[in-house]
Amino acid sequence: MLRTDLEFSMLPKLGTGPVRWRITDGFVAYEEAVQTMEREVGAIAEGGDELVWLVEHPPLYTAGTSANAADLVQPDRFPVFATGRGGEYTYHGPGQRVAYVMLDLKRRRQDVRAFVAALEDVVIRTLDMMNVRGERREDRVGVWVRRPEKPLLPDGSMAEDKIAALGIRLRKWVTFHGLSLNVDPDLDHFSGIVPCGISAHGVTSLVDLGLPVMMADVDVMLRAAFETVFGETVNDA
Length: 237
Prior knowledge:
single chain, 237 residues, alpha/beta, BirA Bifunctional Protein, domain 2, three-stranded mixed sheet, 4 helices, 12 strands, lipoyl(octanoyl) transferase activity, BPL_LPL_catalytic, Octanoyltransferase_CS
């Protein structure tokens, strides 16, 4: 169920200007992304302007702090990176929009659960602009899409696929890592892991749902949704 703006708004924001919005074309190496986030988070903690950074990565797997080694089904398929974000194994690769969200919660609301729910809200609003109903689940982080055309699950419930994953980390109340939205990745690449430790449900993408959208169009909608939830953005060099 979609929560209300009032419940999950991260505003008011105090003390600095709008959130910088940066898009990097081409593939960004994961090590480079982590180094950039470390540098930016340090500057934000000292009072610098917040940042959302949109990237694509070459194919790789990341292991969060709760990752189970048994969930890495094909360890030699792609490079595997241990990361300090919460969560388990995830896949990043071409056709997936990764948004690294670096916000200072001291200037907003020092509530990690509310922040995660607000990120889910950004994805849900983005999907809604494309007439896709994204939903959150109390027992599973991320955004899910019901698949009535698929067979029912063994318990008789409707099949669901994950379309967006979330994983965050905080340092001095500044967030980093963020979310990944499947636009048109190779869904077979997810078979090398048990995504987020959940085997009962599948993974989908916008193109898999029958929406042949361009990444640039998704970026526009993602930005509009972010501004609704978190406030004004400004283009970053």
